[in-house]
Amino acid sequence: MKQNISHGSANAIHVYDTTLRDGTQREGLSLSAVDKIRVARLLDALGVEFVELGWPGSNPKDAEAFARARDLPWSTSTIAAFGATRRGGTSPEDDPQVRALIDTGAPVCTVFGKSSTLHVREVLRVSPEENLRMIGETVEYLRQSGRRVIYDAEHFFDGYRDDPEYAVETLRAAAAAQPEAIVLCDSNGGSLPWEVEQVVRTVAAALDRPVGIHAHDDTGCGVANSLAAIRAGATHLQGTINGYGERCGNANLCSILPTLELKMGLRCLGSAALAELTHVARQVAEIANLAPDAHAPYVGRSAFAHKGGIHVAAIRRHPRAYEHVDPVLVGNRTRVVVSELSGRGNVLAKAEEFEVALEEGAPAAVLRGVKELEARGYAFEAAEASIALLMRRQSTSYAPPFELVDYKVLVGRRQREEAVSDAAIKIRVRGEVVHAAAEGNGPVSALDAALRKALSGAYPEVAGIRLEDYKVRIIDGDARGHFRKSPRAHRQRLRRRALDHRGSFAERPRSIVDRACGWNRVRPFGGQRVGLRGRK
Predict the structure, then answer these.
(1) What is the pTM of this model?
(2) Helix (H, G, I), strand (E, B) or coil at 190
(3) What single string gives the DSSP state of each residue in 386-400?
(4) Which of 53, 199, 322, 423 would bridge 446 by S-S if both were Cys, CB 3.0 to 4.6 A apart?
């Protein structure tokens, strides 16, 4: 059963997602047939009207995806198959790739044809007249076969720039066969918003069919070009989740959809579906095995993050002071980051988030500590648990759970074996000195295992804490200059930064080691062994 999205209303935009076809042309992105179905189900739940599942004539994997899709119920989305117009000198019914579109069983077939005389003559190598016949006959054949047809005018804006009369003639050839929409494609991504708006307005006035936009991001204008086209009269929108696509990517639906709905008053998705956008964007990234862009508009983790002290002070008084929309509307949230740029408001906001009651003078002490530590090379933006610990340590009733006495980490290689790290650590916990040692596949792994072993007797709950990630900071570019000027200064810098591990789990190894003890020896690589030693 279809959800009532009122796509027929005057202010509705028909959303066509091409993540599973055009998006997979991104370098380094590959989806299995099962992955494609998982993404398609997310888009269906989001309320996307058309989901382009793939190009069935291009590879067996897409054919498998269409076969799987046939057996599934779809609530809001209609599955579309993508392909080209017939080849020159043949008929649509005799063209295998056109037949492949029919064989998918997809109710919508999207075909692209050439709008540019350059492509007609140099790529297809057919006459302009034959190209017009290829377009019209393919659209007509698919419609006569019972399919809804969308026509993509490839390279339209480039073709219009070179020969506007012929470019529009290709659209008329398609329009004569009555496709559901005629989509103007900025295939090279080189057009600018004011050009797109002017051309779309001209074309929309000249045709009796709905006009759409398919933009690429090669000039960084994919989103702007799409919005400009819709301002000029386009009612069909093509794009991809997270802007995935070939070269620089396609127009990013995660930026366009909330802008259309929240700022331009145009309906795109089902009721309240926009609040699922952040979840969908991150899930698609997870399935694609790509790191989400933390700074992506609307859906990025940092899209509503505030770091500057003045900004945080302002949003604590009124959220709209530094937020263009309510992040809840797109499924995101406001975040406050604590760093050397922070003010007292940052600390107070994090204390509220972590439910830490700060005593008088504690916010200033925490802020002072953060600034001093970041000046020495620490970074707290990705280590929020460490901020919570700094706050708790300001309490007059705070007692450290353990005290570091000594530790050492050795990295070496046994004969015919992979490199191995050995760590030994000595701590004082509940009045008793505990000594433990462990091996690991690196210094952090070994130190983590040794510390867990030492703490497990007094704190068995440590077994439930998992080290998920850590970062190692490479000494910055001016270190070599410092070394040339002052070997002593360089050694001190090296000691401070040799194990700069940043993570967001409770008590980082670097915090334990570097803050609890002073370095007394750093021996550079001599052969295959390095020793790092600390003491209280």
Answers:
(1) 0.72
(2) coil
(3) HHHHHHHTTSTT---
(4) 423
Q: What angle do CA 520, 525, 530 make, to 5 degrees?
A: 55
Q: For residue range 25-43, what is the model confidence (pLDDT) as tens digits? A: 999 999 999 999 999 999 9
Q: How far is it, in rounded angstroms, from Cα 276 to Cα 299? A: 10
Residue 115: strand pairing partners: none
* Block residue for tokens 């740029």: 341
Range scoring the smallest mean pLDDT among 2-16, 341-355, 432-446? 2-16
Nearest to 95 by CA among 74, 107, 109, 76: 109
Alpha helices, H only, 338-442: 344-354, 362-375, 384-392
Query: In sequence order, what DSSP letters do the residues of 93-152 get, joined into one string?
Result: GG-HHHHHHHHT--SEEEEEEE--HHHIIIII---HHHHHHHHHHHHHHHHHTT-EEEEE
Domain ranges of the chain: 14-270, 305-392, 403-535
- Residue 243 corresponds to which tokens in the numbers above? 């802007």
Q: Does 236 score more than 90 pLDDT?
A: yes
For residues 299-312, give the mean pLDDT: 87
| Half-sphere exposure for 497 (CA within 13 Å, toward CB) | 18
Question: Domain spanning 14-270: which CATH class is it, in words?
Answer: alpha beta
CA nearest to 174, candidates 137, 213, 126: 137
